[in-house]
Amino acid sequence: MASRLNPYISFSGDARQALEFYKSVLGGTLSLSGYGEFGSQTPPGYEEKIMHGMLETDRGFALMASDVPPGMEHEPGNNIAISLSGDDADELRGYWEKLSSGGTVSVPLEKQMWGDVFGMCTDRFGITWMVDITEQG
Description:
2,3-Dihydroxybiphenyl 1,2-Dioxygenase, domain 1, 2 domains, four-stranded mixed β-sheet, 8 strands, elongated
């Protein structure tokens, strides 16, 4: 396998729901490993939490996530955004509609001064997404 860079998102208890939502938006195959799969070493209250999850799509997207383990701080912030870009306007608009539904739109998906159609939103799980649709040339 060639090297690749994957976004990895930490959640404080709703990684399963978030990854299932992202699968409903992006499609693909979702694999989940729960803390509870490790028997007596499972931290109390973590039986249903996700130790590692990975969504891989037919379009080549990969997204990883987990619930923060006990003892680690979870401090969501505005220091990460996930960008979806390309020239398939229908596909990207479909992702936008699903990701922004129930979330907060900070930049509406519309034509920008640099010529692309761009929008930015924060989904219902607190993750920022940028969608950029380039002109087909």
